[in-house]
Design goal:
Layout lengths: L20 E6 L6 E2 L21 E2 L2 H20 L3 E3 L10 E3 L2 E3 L8 H4 E4 L2 E4 L15 H10 L4 E4 L14 H6 L3 H10 L16 E4 L2 E5 L6 H10 L4 E5 L13 E5 L2 E4 L7 H9 L3 E4 L23 E4 L2 E5 L3 H9 L3 E5 L15 E6 L15
Parallel strand pairs: 1-4, 8-9, 11-12, 14-15, 17-18
Antiparallel strand pairs: 1-19, 2-3, 5-6, 7-8, 10-11, 13-14, 16-17
InterPro entries: AmidinoTrfase (IPR033195)
Protein name: Serine/threonine protein kinase
Organism: Streptomyces roseoverticillatus
């Protein structure tokens, strides 16, 4: 791969998840909090010292271990000629407020992918649906400002900052939802009867999968139909598809539906996709492969993520992918699919907001906009 230098021209450009990566942001774990209670967040970890209703910083030893793995990832990428930038952590323990609500803590700056998305030459700040994450964009603003100064063609956009009043959430959602049997949870997911109302557009950037001209956006606990509609109207040159999966707790698409290269998607077997979506890929000659079973049965302590972070991979180019080093079955599967695999220890990062894809944001990938789905089918 070509080596990127600080003196090289700065360009924002990324149309998909697999074109050759030349510039990326890697998050930091510093100061990450178990959030204070709020309508969007349910945390109850009594065995780890955080029973429901409590909040505070993640332990220093966990933070140090996560930062060690994040720093290692940055070195691996730099060793392959990829420019790596890092955000500036804030004091996430401080309370924050708007004129309509107050919140006793923030969250962190590790999962860059949740907050930002690159679509072509546009860098877009997501709305976010957690009050604790409303100001998280500030950790990344110094980098965004520097890109804007350096790249005259960059489009810097921010989705409408949401009000996040009580009207944006279903009252008493978590207690009622957790009491439901699994089949009723799935039925509510299909109907879109989740945490968020449609009072305002809401979406996390990590619910967007970019496949050239087509963007697949998961309706989830962080993304509502109004958010998908806003993206569709904001990006008229793209086809923006709202999708759901049989996942009782849908939260970000990148541990469920992972495009690896043109014609190939890795899919979580425990979260079946809609038949219409599968048919759409089939008529366009795309293959959907079920991800290998994760090595681990559960997430680490103080983590809100699932064990399917095993498939939360970072594609470096159409033939090379970074995978969590302990996920040997996933590594073997990707080898069998023809990839060169770069194993990266990353399990200690999970409590800070996710895996390899979550922790990174591609600023530049070589390539241009392409249409990988020329045949229409059904609502797609």
């Amino acid at each position: 791969m070509p080596v990127a230098h600080q003196g090289d021209s700065m360009k924002v450009n990324a149309w998909n998840e697999w074109d050759p990566l030349t510039h990326v942001i890697v998050g930091r774990a510093d100061g990450t909090m178990v959030q204070a209670p709020e309508p969007a967040v349910f945390r109850d970890w009594p065995e780890e010292g955080f029973p429901r209703g409590t909040h505070g910083p993640l332990p220093e030893a966990m933070t140090a271990a996560a930062n060690e793995q994040l720093d290692h990832l940055a070195r691996v990428l730099e060793g392959r000629g990829i420019r790596v930038d890092r955000p500036r952590p804030l004091d996430f323990s401080q309370p924050v407020a708007t004129p309509e609500w107050s919140q006793k803590s923030m969250f962190g700056a590790m999962p860059v992918r949740d907050v930002l998305v690159t679509i072509g030459n546009e860098l877009l700040e997501a709305t976010m649906s957690f009050r604790s994450r409303w100001f998280e964009y500030l950790a990344h603003r110094p980098l965004i400002e520097s890109y804007f100064r350096a790249d005259p063609d960059m489009r810097w956009e921010a989705a409408p900052k949401p009000r996040l009043t009580e009207a944006s959430y279903r009252e008493g959602f978590w207690d009622a939802y957790d009491a439901l049997p699994p089949e009723e949870k799935i039925a509510r997911v299909r109907r879109g009867e989740l945490l968020l109302t449609e009072a305002e557009p809401l979406f996390d950037a990590a619910d967007i999968a970019r496949l050239g001209k087509d963007l697949f956006v998961q309706r989830s606990l962080a993304t509502n139909a109004a958010g998908i509609r806003w993206l569709r109207q904001h990006l008229p040159d793209h086809r923006v598809h709202g999708v759901t999966f049989e996942n009782a707790h849908p939260m970000h698409i990148d541990a469920t539906w992972v495009p690896l290269r043109p014609g190939l998607v890795l899919h979580c077997a425990e979260r079946p996709a809609e038949e219409e979506l599968l048919h759409h890929l089939k008529v366009n000659a795309w293959q959907v492969v079920q991800a290998a079973t994760p090595q681990r049965q559960a997430a680490p302590p103080l983590s809100a993520c699932s064990r399917w972070l095993s498939m939360n991979v970072l594609v470096l180019d159409p033939g090379t992918v970074c995978v969590e080093a302990g996920e040997t079955a996933q590594i073997e599967q990707l080898y069998a699919l023809g990839f060169d695999v770069v194993p990266v220890p990353f399990w200690d990062v999970a409590p800070f907001g996710g895996g390899l894809h979550c922790a990174t944001l591609d600023i530049h990938r070589e390539g241009m906009l392409q249409d990988y789905f020329p045949k229409r089918s059904g609502r797609f």
